[in-house]
């Protein structure tokens, strides 16, 4: 008696069934993040209508909303997969898209002197913050996150560097909360810092060297005119341009410290996160003229939207008690790091303006 042949479902059908299962598993958490992101954009629009500018951007609003919802409902197993996808995968896609928003030509036209000055400020701020964090007794992971956030571009740099150094979500959330507060103080106080002998463009450069996000740079530089806004935006883009090299160096250093580094180029490439490689590739494609201007606008909006979504997800993964218990070392590191960044930037701008 022969056994009946087993009928197996076609491979495409099985793949579709598994994809549907994954989607249904991700939908609850991703849906909650999307709702919080939309609410953050709405509250930012209310700010702009009432005050003429967004004192607290959608990025930070989404983080605060996520932390608040997490404090109210606690961790939910059914939401974890979608929240994790937004906080990691979608964020990495957003960082990659961000590369298309930078004009290498504009940076090169500004001259090597300005680019070199920006690079020196970033390197100084990184080294200075690491020293401050070590003296203050802050953990190495949080120290590096503060250093990247203050030196480069705030939330985006922190979230880009976190996977590279294997930082915990509690570290990321606490760091972003305190650096965002410090950055807001810089935005509000910088227009009041009228330096003698410094023209409007110089004040714009100072804003670009010290303020986190491009909209915040525009807000801090706007009292000094359109020229200051243009100069500040260009310098800010140069700072963000350092994100890729810094993450690359951190990847190699962290791997060597863990004993996984290799001497070949292929080994180094495997240490670099894929989204950093994608960031550089998108930047190169725009420089080559492959990415049209209309697509740049769309990619910029996509990168911003995915980052806001990720901020909501990060907030949902943060335990408020852990943030409140961050303690004096984190506060001291953030404050002294910002003071060092502002002081070094003022010195550089005055020296350059005096030539």
UniProtKB/TrEMBL annotation:
Keywords: Cell membrane, Membrane, Transmembrane, Transmembrane helix. It is a multi-pass membrane protein. Signal peptide: none annotated. It is found in: Cell membrane. The chain crosses the membrane at residues 22-42, 54-73, 85-108, 114-132, 144-166, 172-193, 205-225, 237-255, 267-287, 299-318, 330-352. InterPro entries: UPF0324_pro. Coiled coil: none annotated. Belongs to the UPF0324 family. This is Sulfate exporter family transporter.
